[in-house]
Amino acid sequence: MIKYGILGAGWRAEFYLRIAALCPDKFAVSGICARNPEKAKYISEKYSVNVVSTLEELLDLDCDFIVCCVNKASMIDIAADLCQKGVPVLMETPMGIDDESQKRFFDRYDPQWRIQVAEQFHLQPMNMAIKAIIDSGILGNIISARLYCCHDYHAASLIRYFLGTGEEMPAIETTYITDRVTKYNSRQGFLTPEPIDSDEKLKIFRFDGKTAIYDFESVQYFSDIRSRQLTVRGTNGEIVNDRCTYLCDGLPVSFTLERQELGQNGNLDGLGLLRITGNGQELYRTPFPCARLSDEETAVATCLLKMDEYLKTGKEFYSVQSAALDAKMFFE
């Protein structure tokens, strides 16, 4: 059983609460620190979890590590404070909001700290399936990617994951356009539809021999009329969203990435994603069958599994250095 405490009680913190509730055989929340009384009452009633009001109370609980998901501006400073106390930390993104905040963190950083970053986008099932295709070699040398699926540092992480550029800092060009779009959904749920002007950011990242194009606007996360788009191209083929085409024996071959979902069309094995297949191969299988997790929750839960492995073996899965580069690629 993986036991963790949660520092912070916002929207992202609820992911860690839901995951423990939906996977009680794997995860347990020892407690959550919520300083706001109304938020504490809401969480206590909704999740039946131990809610404390101070960091000291949280650290007194039986936790394998603390999930730090406070506000972006104070995230890395609070994570550093915890690490200096000897507390293992799984820190939410971003890894700093500007060069000054990153410098402040790394001036304090000790390689003996036990800290990793909960960068989850590359652990989403479809993205892992795409990476499996890339790693198979059928696309040849990967040369470019175009992402319209996630914002800023998350996109930087995916770009580096798909292109395999490591710690290289690219040359960057940025522009903005305005998109007139009807906003109808949000973190708080469905809204009365209203046309708005949405700022759309476009960036071109030029690595050594590889290029990525980032195109995103804030409404996209909660909109099916501005849908997810992802393209990865290699010298021998490409992936566009869930379809792969590549050259085989001199002729193009195409296949679709298929999701095998449980609990549909009379299936009684549970509810949720089991695996993703394509071209006769299993490309991804969930570690949480029948857990009723969304893809995003599955990715965050995978971070929790990897954090447990890191504490037991020392094997890093997302270092502060990698997360710092993700953030730096979007500093203005």
What does this 3D model show about the protein?
- The protein has 332 residues and is α/β, with parallel strands linked by helices.
- The protein has two domains: 2-118, Rossmann fold (3-Layer(aba) Sandwich), CATH 3.40.50.720; 122-293, 2-Layer Sandwich (Dihydrodipicolinate Reductase, domain 2), CATH 3.30.360.
- The protein is built from nine helices and 17 strands.
- The chain has helices at 13-22, 37-47, 55-59, 75-84, 99-108, 125-136, 152-163, 295-313, 320-328; strands spanning 2-7, 27-33, 51-52, 65-68, 89-91, 115-117, 142-148, 171-186, 189-206, 211-217, 229-234, 237-240, 243-248, 251-256, 258-262, 272-278, 281-285.
- A hairpin with a 2-residue loop joins strand 16 (272-278) and strand 17.
- Helix 1 packs across helix 8.
How would you describe this structure in keywords?
eight-stranded mixed beta sheet, 17 strands, 332 residues, alpha/beta, Dihydrodipicolinate Reductase, domain 2, 2 domains, Rossmann fold
Walk me through the topology.
Elements: E1 2-7, H1 13-22, E2 27-33, H2 37-47, E3 51-52, H3 55-59, E4 65-68, H4 75-84, E5 89-91, H5 99-108, E6 115-117, H6 125-136, E7 142-148, H7 152-163, E8 171-186, E9 189-206, E10 211-217, E11 229-234, E12 237-240, E13 243-248, E14 251-256, E15 258-262, E16 272-278, E17 281-285, H8 295-313, H9 320-328
Helix pairs in contact: 1-8, 7-9
Sketch the topology as an H/E string, one letter per element: EHEHEHEHEHEHEHEEEEEEEEEEHH
Q: Structural class per helix/strand content?
A: alpha/beta
How much of the residues is beta strand, in percent? 25-35%
> What is the CATH C-level name of the largest domain?
Alpha Beta
Could you say what the CATH architecture of the largest domain is? Answer: 2-Layer Sandwich
**What is the tally of helical segments?**
9
Q: What is the residue-mean pLDDT, rounded to a whole number?
A: 95
3D shape? globular
Distance between the termini: 42 Å
The percent range for helix content is 25-40%
Could you tell me the number of beta strands?
A: 17
| CATH fold label of the largest domain | Dihydrodipicolinate Reductase, domain 2
Task: Identify the quaternary structure here.
Answer: single chain
Rg: 21 Å
Largest sheet: 8 strands, mixed
Low-confidence stretches: none
User: What is the number of domains?
Assistant: 2
Biggest sheet, strands in spatial order?
A: 8-9-10-7-11-12-13-14
